[in-house]
Design brief:
homodimer, 322 residues, TIM Barrel, 13 helices, 13% strand, globular
């Protein structure tokens, strides 16, 4: 009788996305102290990668309206992490059609960043491939987040994987943007991605959302079926319902390289306060959009309104509009 | 390519445990209006069973200190549900060594209850078997919750199943009292229980706790592997971290006999207010005890203290005491 859950795979790597995905809750207006605390926690906890934010276009996003982590300018990053001496790798996300990548992504030799994560919807794939090549040419490790996969047809996913297989990406991430996937669906997708990438050495990742309280479970499910790149955030902070909580993930992984105590420390020192100012987590409106496999924008609107508990009204409206 | 998650099994039945397990949060001191609303919601949502509370011993629990649902006296139940005309079945839990079952459980012909759920730790099994026989002789459907299974050895579980197999129980429930089980463990247990009960017509149930945000996921996992009796509670209300949320479960099950809208209605009408008075859910202290496979009492103490966010202190204490 085997008990694989008490073993570990050394090749599995964890990425902290707190500032990047969590920044969607507060327009990336984090205090420096918190960003620095998350960075130091990643170092102490033995986390492999930290995503500092987006490389957002200043033509689309006004710098006064958004915090520094919407843009990840070199000076802002170095203000907090210096030259980032150590084994933690730093990443920034570049959204297809929302990034001036030719100008804003510097050659790797001039940047403290190690990884560019290109995020794309399936219809933006040609742009994404150009971004991937651009970042790889500049010397970065490049990964690709294929978003909102729960509303993409199998033929389209297969085509996207066939194209991405030929690019220099090191990892392709299964992204459950709407938090709508159940374990069996995640299992099927992870297997599909792995089969499509067989023989390339490329890894499969998982980026889960917590609309149905399944982000941690779906992350475990992905790991069981061979995903070796795993996203999580401190206190599960992320857009809407949030992401897989780092405290649960690190506590689950048996690799002695990881330590959970620093994560509890940063939660208690910083995220209790932050929760009084920002709002995320698997609240009922997010349950509803997740189960209906819809973008969380209507749930975000409900949660931000005066009548944040108008669950039936939200449900009726979404069902009527199906 | 198959997609079993969009089908359903008509033989799968859902039990609402809100008042019974949720009552462990507030000493069963619920307003009548809320209990009645949960009852009516169960009827409207097509839920199969509702557990009204415990048959607690008045020698152990002072009636003034606890609400009516600690005892489920016949008059109190009938005050709210009348003769319970309709298809919803009513259950009460009888805890081994905490129930005066010979006196307090009436013959079925005199009771509005349909089901007695005998809850037992493995070391109490001889008492539990006597209680099972007593309730069956009195005319009830009887089920058995084998508790805290995550700290019981396989040989003991096997022995318990061998004994229970010969009793008149209709269902044996896998109970993750500490909320410590991961999907693979749940899968293994459900398969073990099913194999042990093969050929008897007895069903396997699942009662999950949400310490690691896995209650819904573990419930799905159990269903995938053949559990046909499934526990959940409104808003996930239950001791400590709570249980599998009914709103998620009913939204997931594809059986058209179930309707999720009445569940959203009762959440918005009653459970938003209740949350301001009572505290449950997968807070960090419960993550910690769940991951350490421990009884949640230390986490409950932390959450009830002045320093409810003292996560590191709780973690250090529990790790030091291992």
């Amino acid at each position: 009788m085997s008990a694989p859950w008490i073993t570990y795979r050394p090749e599995l790597k964890v990425m902290d996305c707190t500032i990047r995905d969590g920044g969607l809750v507060n327009d990336h207006l984090f205090d420096d102290a918190l960003v620095k605390a998350v960075y130091e926690t990643c170092v102490e906890a033995g986390i492999d990668y930290m995503e500092l934010g987006y490389k957002g276009s200043k033509k689309l996003f006004a710098p006064g309206k958004f915090g520094d982590w919407k843009f990840c300018d070199e000076d802002d990053m170095r203000r907090l992490v210096g030259d980032n001496d150590g084994s933690l790798k730093l990443a920034a996300m570049a959204d297809a059609e929302k990034t001036d990548y030719h100008e804003d992504i510097l050659p790797k030799s001039q940047s403290v960043l190690d990884v560019i994560r290109v995020a794309t919807y399936v219809h933006q794939l040609p742009v994404a491939v150009d971004m991937i090549n651009d970042a790889a040419d500049k010397g970065y490790e490049v990964t690709c987040n294929l978003m909102a996969i729960s509303i993409v047809q199998d033929a389209e996913i297969d085509q996207a994987l066939e194209i991405l297989r030929e690019t220099p990406v090191s990892t392709i991430v299964v992204v459950d943007s709407f938090g709508s996937l159940y374990q069996e669906q995640v299992q099927r997708l992870v297997k599909k991605y792995r089969e499509a990438l067989e023989g390339t050495g490329k890894e499969v990742g998982i980026h889960a959302h917590n609309n149905q309280q399944l982000a941690f479970a779906n992350t475990i499910e992905s790991i069981i079926h061979g995903a070796n790149r795993v996203d999580a955030t401190m206190a599960g902070m992320g857009r809407g319902a949030g992401n897989c909580p780092m405290e649960l993930l690190i506590g689950f992984l048996r690799n002695p390289a990881y330590r959970v105590r620093p994560v509890y420390q940063v939660l208690q020192d910083y995220f209790v306060d932050l929760r009084n100012k920002c709002d995320w987590g698997p609240m009922v409106p997010y349950n509803i959009t997740g189960q209906l496999n819809q973008h969380p924008r209507s749930a975000i609107a409900t949660v931000s309104s005066d009548d944040r508990h108008a669950y039936v009204e939200l449900y009726d409206k979404l069902v009527a509009d199906l």
